[in-house]
Amino acid sequence: MSKSFLPKHPVITAYPKMPEAFAEAQAMSAFLKEKGVDAPFGSLYDTDLRNRVKNGQYDLLITVGGDGSVLRAGHLCAPSGVPILGVNLGRLGFLIQIERQEWREYFEKLLNGEAWIENRMMLRAEHIRAGESLGSSNALNEVVVARGQNLRPIRLTATVDGRRLTSYAADGLIASTATGSTAYALAAGGPILPPELRNILLVPIAPHLSVDRAVVLSEGSSVSIVVNSENSILSVDGQPPVLLMEDDHVDVTVADVTAQFVRFGDPGYFYRNLTAHMNENSLGFPR
Questions:
Q1: 109 and 134: one domain?
Q2: Active-site residues: which are they?
Q3: Alpha carbon separation from 43 to 15, 99, 109 (Å, rounded)
Q4: Which residues contact residue 283 at a Cβ distance below 8 angstroms, ignoring those fewer than 6 apart?
Q5: Least trusted range by pLDDT, from 130-139, 214-223, 267-276
Q6: Over the stretch 141-197, which tens digit does the pLDDT of each residue have?
Q7: Structural domain count of the chain
Q8: Do residue 136 and residue 99 come from a single domain?
Q9: What gap in Å lies between CA 97 and CA 84, rounded to an integer?
Q10: What is the distance between the alpha carbons of residues 250 and 129, in angstroms, rounded to a whole number?
Q11: What CATH number is attached to the domain comprising 250?
């Protein structure tokens, strides 16, 4: 656990597709103003607000929404080293410690210096074709190479630190952070990793007559996913997919930026959150 954290210049963002998020953000801004802290609010997609975050004008970004909002906030804030505090208006909230009805209580703790910063590793994915880089992006959850619209499995080869690991015939392969181990990787049958780990998790999606177990790589490993067939796509943290061609590589390494999250209490919050979500899902849908 790192030392306590007390922000002086927070900003509040709301997910634009949740009208109730703006109402909560406005209430948060008013609450903090009563406490003597100026905290403007706006859309998570507002260009001016995003530029101010990138320029380091804020020392905390409070985001109101669900896990998707936190992922977007992570991509925005990590390069500038701005910590994130999520308030959950979504369904699951694996990344979020605070529920909608609790934020006033937690904001009091924040202003009393009772918060701390948790660092989460991110991944960097680079798309390479014929030795040329076609672009790169960072992931807080996962990098996925998967089949496109055609239902046939695709063939992939994974190398680790330059050595061949194995080949897959599958619907895809997930390279996940510890944070992402409770996201798509979990749905694909992968293990849950403690959030502070800096390992890369490889999880095949619906493997066919090939390795069907997840592999946890040592800290600092690099992975290259080689596409051995057509009909493949690359998706990073659920963003719109990029079409891949046969012989393309997706190289995955630990990113040089880290996502920072504001937390309260002891680090055991993660397991309490996890248990609550698992129990909730075991009750069935819809709720």
A1: no
A2: 67
A3: 6, 20, 25
A4: none
A5: 267-276
A6: 999 999 998 989 999 999 999 999 999 999 999 999 999 999 999 999 999 999 999
A7: 2
A8: no
A9: 11
A10: 9
A11: 2.60.200.30
